[in-house]
Q: What sequence folds into this?
């Protein structure tokens, strides 16, 4: 290799320093910014422990792998032959040997350092595994096979397998490095017939290979415990019959053979004989094939599969028990009761359940965000989330549910001409207030002028004069600097203003200066330089309005703040705001999870929590087999203060993490009563649990294996709000997104039906069928928080999809909604609520409309659909719709004789309304067309032909228009003469 001049060496060194500086500079900058931020929120110890653990693992694993590689390279170099024969002048190794010899320190030190750095960088990401091992706590429950405490599998076994993997890597890399070194220095020569291997090289490589095989024996030992997480059988998780009776003995046999092989390698190293290690290696390979693979396959194919139900019964029983424990579905938490699901009940029996009937929610938080924006946005730089939240408050001593939303900052809404750096980061810095709308109330029915069907708003805000309006629930500080909207991803510089610097916008007639403790002080020159570099913004450095008392607020989303201070938590996707002790507070649920719990089912977190709900961040795509809602976190909307409370203090995983980060999680007793009254059972946990309950409500192994009793989460019948009625009817048979669970205020389903309870509810249907199987609800009240009730139905009660079909194929409903869509009025279907009432199931669905002729579209409540038993109610108000259902005033479904309601039974006059004397020929023709269309609808429904059904509805609509035109010409009221439409079964 050519020698470099002194100038070239200096340039190379400078270039290397610059390159390293560019790579590490941004990391150091980010580390310092994070250090400041964690100090602001009071969780610097979390960052320090996390950083120290990662650095420690980097150094430890780097030294381990790099040190072992360096040791083997040194051994290979020192055991090299004194005289290295060469094969001739063209020996290709001679050049490399000469280069390595002249720069021995560069290669001898540089290569192990590079390998160590790569290994350390890979290992430092597993800091959580290491800390859980150091702070492991017992579960006080043992597994059914080996009798070890579950804590061994949760905290210790993952660390042992991790450490073993790094020992494998270090040994394998060392073996490769030793082979290359011996080859370079002549210990291995390929010249001649079979090549030559020097004695020292033979000894060295035999010892390294023996260590590798010894590690393999240790791996076989640990593999026995990994069998408890086996997925050999696709019907359950855990050690199957084959695993226990073939694979487990095979692991022990292979362990013994591996130890024998390791001894053979060590013996061969002493005797300098490769025959014994070679024979041992062949024995290990053959044993792995025959004992480890072939025998389990034979047993599985010829013994287990023909008798699977009997053979796997014990394993299935273990799987059921472990899964219920791991997902919090044990008998002390879940109450299961049969529910009759009656189709017909007395009027008094139905009306007696006023706790449910009096609190039916009409406002869908996933639909009315645009309505909130239209009426309560105030300014374009404010915004509401795409999905609003449901909470409850006491009004005059009575519990009432509300749709709630914070009026948050949305910097993207600043008019284009005013969207400069000062306005975005110094002027428009915070939101203004919180909006409440009673969930079961609107101002009036939507009339033809569009003046009704809107929420009744109550607001806590800063008025135009800068004075605080506390609103209905006593908000003391309505200014919000932390939230979910667009401003949450940007930074704001608040507080003291230097010179005549601009103050923060508060209202059109008032300004404001932040006086909270949130944010990092930015006034000093060094911090200005740091944040100017971090955000690549020179204005931070040169703006004179930034004084010594100024603060920079960033990381403003409640979810992000909780994830940062508690990196060991899986955070719920939907934080929600509440007024707690007079302050607007974001409440965030945190989960502790495990990937492997012995015998417990593994479920995909992303799949189980994914549903049709818009505006909600999705969970990561990873599998879990254990989950607890162990932490409730709060984030103050004004100063960003993060507080963690222990919700499940018995959770061993939480105890372990509290050992890692002592003092960061407050005990449950520190939670105020005001906060307890606003705790909701978290949605993501409930989604995981209902997905698990769909299978694991089955207790008999035989029934579980057959799967005939499994349930399923229903698809959401209202998922596509943009489609027309006909399109929805045609899509009913297509796969849909899962229906989300709904928060409701209702009677206790398994206790006192007249006691109002705030619940999270979901319907479950029979597997691959749309009939109801069960109704699952979990309570959020402080006195019975987390109690799950399951009402099981054994009759053929209709499920959500069937009820939606029943609604949409009702002649009155479909006719009116089709007319609306054809007149360019968008029909939006709200959440379809399932409510157990009077021993039966009551279904309620609000219908919203958006008038396309308006410049700004927003939903207004138009009608309410109600179904109970065989009755359908459709009216402008819930009261009217319920009265139709309760008194039977609505059109009923066909009776057993096949007569359609709305048509005349055989004993009555068959002449339909609208066909009397005094009508014009055009009107009579229109009536005949309507009757033909109705007959076509009935025929299409009977045959299940959705295409024909859609064509029939189009014909009905054209006939209706023809009838209206004829009625207008004849000065008659179409409503008084039109034939009544049937309510088909669907």
A:
């Amino acid at each position: 290799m050519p020698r470099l001049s002194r100038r070239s060496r200096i340039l190379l060194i400078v270039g290397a320093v610059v390159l390293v500086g560019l790579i590490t500079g941004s990391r150091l900058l980010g580390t310092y910014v994070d250090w400041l931020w964690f100090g602001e929120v009071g969780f610097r110890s979390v960052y320090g422990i996390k950083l120290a653990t990662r650095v420690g693992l980097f150094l430890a694993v780097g030294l381990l792998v790099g040190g072992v590689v360096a040791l083997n390279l040194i051994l290979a170099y020192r055991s090299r032959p004194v005289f290295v024969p060469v094969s001739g002048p063209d020996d290709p190794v001679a050049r490399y040997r000469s280069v390595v010899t002249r720069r021995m320190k560069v290669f001898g030190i540089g290569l192990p350092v590079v390998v160590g750095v790569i290994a350390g960088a890979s290992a430092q990401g597993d800091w959580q595994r290491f800390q859980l091992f150091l702070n492991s706590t017992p579960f006080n429950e043992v597994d059914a096979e080996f009798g070890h405490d579950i804590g061994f599998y949760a905290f210790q076994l993952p660390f042992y397998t991790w450490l073993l993997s790094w020992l494998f890597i270090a040994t394998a890399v060392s073996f490769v490095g030793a082979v290359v070194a011996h080859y370079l220095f002549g210990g291995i020569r390929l010249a001649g017939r079979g090549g030559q291997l020097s004695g020292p090289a033979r000894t060295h490589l035999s010892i390294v290979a023996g260590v590798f095989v010894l590690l393999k024996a240790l791996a076989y030992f640990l593999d026995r415990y990994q069998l408890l997480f086996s997925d050999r059988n696709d019907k359950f998780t855990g050690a199957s019959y084959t695993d226990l009776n073939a694979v487990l003995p095979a692991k022990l046999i292979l362990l013994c053979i591996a130890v024998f092989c390791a001894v053979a390698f060590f013996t061969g190293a002493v005797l300098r004989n490769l025959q014994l290690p070679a024979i041992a290696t062949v024995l290990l390979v053959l044993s792995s094939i025959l004992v480890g693979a072939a025998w389990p396959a034979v047993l599985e194919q010829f013994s287990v599969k023909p008798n699977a139900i009997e053979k796997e019964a014990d394993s299935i029983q273990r799987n059921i028990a472990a899964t219920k424990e791991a997902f919090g579905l044990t008998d002390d938490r879940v109450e299961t009761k049969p529910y009759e699901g009656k189709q017909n009940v007395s009027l008094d029996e139905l009306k007696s359940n006023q706790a449910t009937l009096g609190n039916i929610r009409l406002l869908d938080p996933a639909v009315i965000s645009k309505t909130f924006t239209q009426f309560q946005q105030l300014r374009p730089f404010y915004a509401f989330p795409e999905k609003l939240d449901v909470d409850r408050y006491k009004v005059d001593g009575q519990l009432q549910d509300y749709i709630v939303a914070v009026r948050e900052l949305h910097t993207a809404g600043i008019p284009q001409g005013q969207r400069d750096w000062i306005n975005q980061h110094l002027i428009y810095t915070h939101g203004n207030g919180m909006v409440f709308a009673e969930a079961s109330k609107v101002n009036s029915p939507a009339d033809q002028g569009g003046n009704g069907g809107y929420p009744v708003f109550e607001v806590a805000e800063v008025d135009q004069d800068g004075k605080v309006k506390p609103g209905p629930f006593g908000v003391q500080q309505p200014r919000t600097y932390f939230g979910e909207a667009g401003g949450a991803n940007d930074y704001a510089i608040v507080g003291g203003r230097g010179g005549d610097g601009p103050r923060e916008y508060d209202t059109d007639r008032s300004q404001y200066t932040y006086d909270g403790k949130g944010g990092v002080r930015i006034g000093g020159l060094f911090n200005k330089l740091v944040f100017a570099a971090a955000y690549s913004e020179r204005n931070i450095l040169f703006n004179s309005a930034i004084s010594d008392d100024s603060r920079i607020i960033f990381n403003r989303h409640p979810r992000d703040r909780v994830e940062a201070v508690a990196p060991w938590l899986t955070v719920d996707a939907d934080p929600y705001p509440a007024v707690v002790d007079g302050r607007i507070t974001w409440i965030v649920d945190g989960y502790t999870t495990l990937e492997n719990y012995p015998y417990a089912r593994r479920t995909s977190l992303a799949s189980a929590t994914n549903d049709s709900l818009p505006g909600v961040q999705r969970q990561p795509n990873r599998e879990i087999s254990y989950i607890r809602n162990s932490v409730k976190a709060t984030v103050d909307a004004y100063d960003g203060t993060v507080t963690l409370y222990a919700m499940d203090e018995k959770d061993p995983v939480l105890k372990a993490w509290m050992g890692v980060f002592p003092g960061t999680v407050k005990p449950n007793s520190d939670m105020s009563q005001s906060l307890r009254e606003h705790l909701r059972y978290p949605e993501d946990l409930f989604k995981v649990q209902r997905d698990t309950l769909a299978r694991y409500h089955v207790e008999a192994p035989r029934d579980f294996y057959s799967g005939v009793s499994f349930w399923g989460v229903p698809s959401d019948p209202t998922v596509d709000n943009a489609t027309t009625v006909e399109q929805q009817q045609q899509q009913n048979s297509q796969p849909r997104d899962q229906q989300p669970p709904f928060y409701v205020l209702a009677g206790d389903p398994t206790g006192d039906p007249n006691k109002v309870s705030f619940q999270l509810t979901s319907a479950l249907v029979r597997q691959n069928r749309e009939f109801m199987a069960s109704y699952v609800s979990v309570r959020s009240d402080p006195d019975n928080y987390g109690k799950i009730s399951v009402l099981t139905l054994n009759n053929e009660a209709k499920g959500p999809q069937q009820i939606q079909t029943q609604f949409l194929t009702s002649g009155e409903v479909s006719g009116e909604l089709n007319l609306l869509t054809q007149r360019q009025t968008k029909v939006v279907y709200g959440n379809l609520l399932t409510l157990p009432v009077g021993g039966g199931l009551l279904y309620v669905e609000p219908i919203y409309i958006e008038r396309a002729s308006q410049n700004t579209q927003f939903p207004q409540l138009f009608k309410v659909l109600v179904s109970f038993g065989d009755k359908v109610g459709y009216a402008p108000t819930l009261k009217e719709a319920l009265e139709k259902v309760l008194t039977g005033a609505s059109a009923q479904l066909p009776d057993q004789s096949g007569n359609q309601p709305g048509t005349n039974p055989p004993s009555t006059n068959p002449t339909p309304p609208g066909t009397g004397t005094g009508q014009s020929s055009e009107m009579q023709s229109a009536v005949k067309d309507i009757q033909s269309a109705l007959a076509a609808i009935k025929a299409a429904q009977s045959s299940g032909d959705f295409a024909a059904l859609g064509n029939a509805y189009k014909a009905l609509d054209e006939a209706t228009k023809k009838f209206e035109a004829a009625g207008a010409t004849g000065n008659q009221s179409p409503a008084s003469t039109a034939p009544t439409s049937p309510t088909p079964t669907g």
